[in-house]
Input
Amino acid sequence: MPAHRCDYCLKPISTLAGVKRHIAQSAACQQQWNRVLEHTASTASVDDHQIGDEMDNAPGIVSDQYDESDGNDSGRDNLDIQEGPLVQQLQSYAEPEPLNPPSRHASVGDDVEDEPASANGGRFVEQYTGAAAHILGSWPTVFEDMENAENTSGGSQWAPFQNEEEWELARFLMKNVGQTKIDDFLKLSLSGVSFANAHAFLKYVDSLRTGPAWTCEMIDVVGDAVAEDGSTRREQLELWRRDPVECVMELIGNPAFRDAMAYVPERAYADSEGKNHIYDEMWTADWWWDVQGKLPAGATVAPVILSSDKTSLSVFSGDKKAWPVYLTIGNISKDIR
Output
């Protein structure tokens, strides 16, 4: 279940950043947010007048302290906020400081950790005004195709395994146990599973539906070691790869990322004047905005992120190592990807 939700429409959203984007883009929720800020502003204004009345009757030393600021335009009611091209032209009001501020030194038992920022405030968004991310049509995603195929076949959602318990056992064996140990385990009369040995188990695993297909080609690699005849050693290696375009399509079509995706650039600010730029997600970067303007109308930017690291292939491969290249896209929120 999503860990966050919008305070106004109660829509569940998987990330805090997603909540902020939702409020910035939903007219109804944005309107309610405006009302909250207006109420905060009016409350702050009333508090100012109350403080002023109290100051008139307070001891002279306190009045003098406030008289020093007379004539200045730094009050909350005198904020001169310039109107800019932001979608939300809002004013943010701070709570009035107490006359006797608490000590900054934490006492025993105090929780000194900062309170998390509100999910519904402190973010002003400027939407991209050009033509971007036009919908050309609709068709089933890879995951919907898989689901339709399962429903058509009439099989269980845990197929080829018998049930959820066998599925979970298979996942555990695949991640943690070697082939010999799997054979030893399956010889136990208490196992009660539908596959008799490791070979049958791996056939089950290979029959599972996957995303983009893998292809293999042999490559000739020249090493840095020298053979006895003085020549440089060479080695034939397997290169397994997937079509990167199909990988991007699968990521975009994955329903798990539906509420954590962005297709259009935006500029985010911490203030209504647009002076304090927020760079948190990739689509808030200036380069995305600039690239979008160079593309044909309606196009969508899908930034590809690549990384690589040495890793063990699996428990079935002994001490062999591989250097997989991981691929994701910047359209997915950083909290998820």
About this structure: The first strand starts at residue 4 and ends at 5. Residues 54-120 have pLDDT under 50 and may be disordered. The longest helix spans residues 27-56.
